[in-house]
Design a protein that fits this description.
A hairpin with a 4-residue loop joins strand 4 and strand 5. The longest helix has 19 residues. The chain is α+β, with helices and mostly antiparallel strands. It is built from eight helices and eleven strands.
Length: 272
Amino acid sequence: MFFFKSIKEVNKIGFYSRHNYSWLFPRDKHATISVLTFRQQDLSAQDDYLVEAQTEHVVHWLKHKSGIFQTEIADTIKTLNAQFNPRGKNKVMECLQFGGNREFWHDFPDEEEIEIYFRHCYGFAIRHIGFMKTDKNIICALIVTEPNRRNLFVYYLPVTDKWKAKVMSNNRSEDGSKLQMRDKTGNPIYAIKQSVSSPRLCHSEFWKQRGEEMSYSVLQECFYQNLSKRYGAKRGESTSLLKYTTPEQAARFKRCKDDEYDIFKNSKGSWV
């Protein structure tokens, strides 16, 4: 039996390939889910990536994209009759990226079973980000298999049938614009709007309806509890702020209120 103080020591004496650490340090199986966001100016790069992926890698479509993203987005907005303010900084499209580490894929018997897993991921995506739990706001979905990794990409529009809107008063500013109403303590007043026939395309409002500050933790936890845990994946330890962590995560990792890393200077925080 050999004992080494570091990877550097192992490489130095030539016992070990730098491309294969598994026999020394076996890793847990991890399945991943990430949220990617895109502005208008990012769309052409995504079109180019999909063209490149089909040329250089193995691609299997779960929902086809017939045109460029710009056209597909415009058609989807029209179909859903979605409200959208096309300012330059607005995030018009998002993508759920599903993946995993080598140890996770190693336990699948063949490519067919991996495709079945990704189809379960696609079903999870429809339930979590689909408009009214349908694929109407999903532009396309594809599995990309590369030599060293594989991913499912689900491109969609963050369309929500509920959102928070300012309540305006009859008072006006110096330039004549209406001012927002405020309560007795001076806080601005909002009202919840809802419309299935004329929903809103808005990144921030979309995620507010899915947990606000905890929206990303909710997404990760739902994915773990409903899917990846069934395939033997382990959940990484959460070091996010208690305020932005679901109760299940806090209990599993024995998180307590006022833990040292819950001290956060920016009280506003952020959501995905």
